[in-house]
Each structure stands twice: as structure tokens, then as C-alpha cells.
Design a protein that fits this description.
alpha+beta; 142 residues; ATP Synthase, domain 1; 2 helices; 9 strands
Length: 142
Amino acid sequence: MAAFPFELVSPDRVLFSGPAQSVVVPGDEGDFQVLTDHAPTVSSVRPGVIAIEDAAGRRHRVFVRGGFAEVHPLGLILLAETAIPFEDLSAAKLDHEIKNAEEDLADASEDQKRQAQEKLDRLRELRDSMKTLTAGGADRSA
């Protein structure tokens, strides 16, 4: 499968920079998969997991808490508010993200409450998914 340039950047570091065969992005309107020659797209990113298949076929997963993705003729760039490699994601880190989201919801204006609640709900879903993966002994890096 042909590869395309992909960069995943958070405020504190670059988490991935190189060729990718496939990237699944948790967009606000739903997950979408980017492959070579994908149509130009700009999307906000909801809390969730970015699934990356690099040029060598290795799979990587990175938890993101919001951001923006842009697919352009030269590849994909994703700017994440927060990004944590899935293998580094602990229950404590996720609980911290949930606490932050709960505070965001409490401080939200009426216009922002729906979006803040959705973010909190998705983080709780991710926590539940992590518990299922850990309890089932599934490989978290695939």
C-alpha cells in the first residue's frame, strides 16, 4: 500500500512524523480513514484514539483530546490539544483528563455545555474501553 506524509503534533512534542499507509482520525462528525490520495479535508478532532499504520505496517495508537486535522495533497497533519501514546496511557492519566473535562463542563457557558458534555462522555467511554482491553488481556499497541 502506498504511503503518505503524516505528522501528529501536540503542544509539547511531535508524536509521529513520517510516512503512513493509513490513519484513522476521530473527527467531530465521526471517524474517518485517511489513505494516499485522500480528498482535501479539514476537521476538528474529538477525544478518542488515532490509529496509525506506518509505512512498515506497524500499528500505533495515540489518545487525543481534541484538535484539528488537515488532509491536503501532500499528506495529513493533525494538531492535537493533548496527545498520549496508547502504551503510555494509564488509568491515572485518563482519570486526570476526565477531571479536567468535568471542570470544563462545570465552567461552560450554556452555549458550550453540549460540547463539554460530549467530550466528557467520550473520555468516559475511552476509560471503559481501556478497562475492557486490560481485563481481556488484549494487546493495547496493535
